[in-house]
UniProtKB/TrEMBL annotation:
Signal peptide range in chain numbering: none
Keyword tags: Repeat
Domain of life: Bacteria
Transmembrane regions listed in the UniProt entry: none
Organism: Spiribacter curvatus
Domain named Rhodanese: residues: 29-149, 178-293
Protein name per the record: Rhodanese domain-containing protein
PANTHER family reported in the protein's UniProt record: THIOSULFATE SULFURTRANSFERASE (PTHR43855:SF1)
């Protein structure tokens, strides 16, 4: 916990997945609140550097500058080893009894994905007292609450993980998706799903066969500050053919955008056992034997069949 939080308080009630600035402002002096500021260059989220302004008591936990993800066997964006995450989180002053508030910049959907990925990481480590400040630092400024400047004194704590392996989907799970009752959900913008764009680290363009498209950016409203809009979830998920008993698993390029769609399904819609394939298309396409579906190639095959 942070040295600046000294007031003893009872344990917080169950924490909502999304909070507004007023919720946080009411709890700034609680000694079991740990605020992680994950602003980064993503979506220009570092336009105001941490030292020039941040929520009082927050820790500079910038993403991806800190090791919230790692490269493993040449695959970027993977979940780091548990012991590395325990050390990272403990160094931020977070203990197992703390409620973690994740603060993005509030500057775009990809910026929110940073917060969603950190949120998912805590959940995967068995720590469910975690929430995201909706609208991030921009929402805090709009609400005209006070800010601090400079750095914060952090006292490290001990954080012990309880890994929830069911939250982590592997390539083997994806290869056997149909027989395992898995519905794959591609969280990337449609141009990636259709095969018109690809991530630089992916071997080829396209999507995983059988995947349905639910672009991550559908979940947001923007009135100068980008907020996750819970009222848009049902509309964004319209047309998703998820039958009873199927397990949804989201993916993208590197397991970043996909955590937003995971968040919508699991934390907002309340669907049980939603998975995240953190290796996503970069890992999937690294193996040349794995199939890739490309919409425009599929159309070409149909035209060839018809003699077009």
């Amino acid at each position: 916990m942070l040295a600046t939080f000294t007031t003893a308080t009872p344990a917080l009630a169950e924490t909502p997945a999304l909070i507004d600035p007023a919720w946080l402002a009411d709890r700034l002096q609680h000694d079991d609140i740990a605020i992680l500021d994950v602003r980064s260059p993503i979506d220009d989220g570092d336009a105001t550097p941490f030292v020039e302004g941040h929520i009082p008591g927050a820790v500079d936990a910038g993403y991806p500058r800190h090791s919230w993800r790692s490269e493993q066997s040449g695959i970027i964006g993977k979940m780091p080893p548990v012991d590395a995450l325990e050390s990272l989180i403990g160094d931020f002053g977070v203990g197992n009894d703390d409620t973690v508030v994740i603060v993005p910049a509030g500057t775009g959907p990809t910026d929110f994905g940073s917060a969603a990925r950190v949120y998912w990481t805590f959940q995967a480590l068995g720590h469910d007292q975690v929430t995201i400040l909706n609208g991030g630092y921009q929402a805090w400024l709009e609400a005209e609450f006070g800010v601090a400047k400079g750095s914060e004194t952090v006292v490290s704590d001990d954080f012990e993980a309880d890994l929830q392996t069911e939250m982590i989907t592997t390539s083997a799970d994806v290869e056997n998706a149909e027989e395992r009752g898995v519905q794959l959900i591609d969280a990337r913008p449609s141009e990636y799903y259709e095969g018109n764009e690809k991530h630089p680290a992916a071997r080829v363009a396209g999507t995983i066969p059988g995947a349905e498209s639910v672009p991550h950016q559908r979940f947001f409203s923007n009135a100068e500050t980008w907020r996750f809009d819970s009222e848009r979830v049902d509309t964004a998920l319209e047309g998703l053919s998820l039958s009873d008993g199927q397990r949804p698993v989201s993916f993208c390029n590197t397991g970043h955008w996909a955590t937003t769609t995971w968040f919508a399904l699991s934390e907002v819609r309340g669907i049980d056992n939603v998975g995240l394939y953190d290796g996503s298309m970069v890992e999937w396409t690294a193996d040349e034997s794995r199939p890739v579906a490309v919409a425009k190639q599929g159309l070409a095959r149909i035209l060839d069949f018809l003699g077009g």
